[in-house]
Fold:
Amino acid sequence: MNSSQLSPRVGHYRWRIIALLFFATTINYIDRQVLGMLKPIITDDIHISEADYGYIVSAFQAAYAVGLLFIGRIIDKFGTRISYAVAIVVWSLAGCFHAAARGALGFGIARFFLGLGESANFPAAIKATAEWFPVKERALATGIFNAGSNIGAVVSPIIVTCVTVAYGWQMAFIITGALGLVWMVFWLWCYRVPREAKGLSRAEYDYINQDEKTASAAAPEEEGPRPTWWALMKQRSTVGICLARFVCDWVWWFFLFWTPDFLEKAYGVHIQQMVLPLIVIYTFSSFGGIAGGYISSRLIALGRSVGFARRTGLLVCALLVIPVLLIPGIGSLWGSILIISLACFAHQGWASNIYTVVSDYYPKSSVATMTSMSSFAGSVGGVLAASLVGNVLEITGSYFVVFMIAGFAYLVAWALLQAFLPRRARA
Structure:
């Protein structure tokens, strides 16, 4: 099968959906990164300690985890269109309310509601991708919309720096928070499931649903009641995916929330100088999401099994994170930036595949629920890690221990997937 067969000319309506998901994810990451960008200014302005900052980040992670306890079930029950719209309104308003905070408690409350709303982003986006794309295109499609997380991280320093310098840090939260409300209008106007979408050709509809026609009798699409969390937890694949995300998801949050602080403490990089390093880091990341999705999609196109393709893509990404072990010994700003860029590139490639694994092993009727479960596990790990990182920095004043743990996290996660995932995916 050649590359042209990966995406036949049957229409392109489904790529409009990916564009919407891409912009939602971009806004999602703009909103969550503002605090990290402004940490040096805010901590000086209202005297927040390293431990307090760790607890504020934990508040976001805890709310994210709490939201994931029920958001997948809500999305599966009420549908992607309405659920996603409500969620982005919640997180956009919470983003704006950061401007009113005057201490650690205020930021913690605003951060909690931001996390609660943002918990819907990936379960909704993964479900929409499963609804709109055949198996062989899902990792690539996921990589494309997930690249929005990196574009958001690239755009955020530019917006935040310009607005903060001109109008103060409070206005940075208000302007970035309002972006989601604009997106919500376009989402409600454009999004429908394929069977209800006007303008979708019959050829593209059949192409999107090709896997329904060829699925084996051993793994038919489930049309009955959606499985409970407990029913899903009885499956080995669920345990493996959840453990893997618990072990390594926190590393991405660490880079997102602590990189500006690390660059300032290690190399004296202030907010006006922070834009270029962060643009480099998250530009690399955006290509990683697409590359990771392409690797597994290409292997499937070449005739390899879905399970083999996903495992291979995940292993390559896990190995690319290991060089962060070298950062504590590097005296070069741009040497550290390039290694962090590589690690973020690898994480996004990892994310493209680990999210897609859910739609490989579970039916569409439970994709959002399972994505929520695995994201919950990752968020619990993130809550514990954020508090740990804050306290380690408070006690040692060094990032050495954190980088040491981060370097091996993805390899451990990959080993867990090897141990628990069945060799054959249902897809």
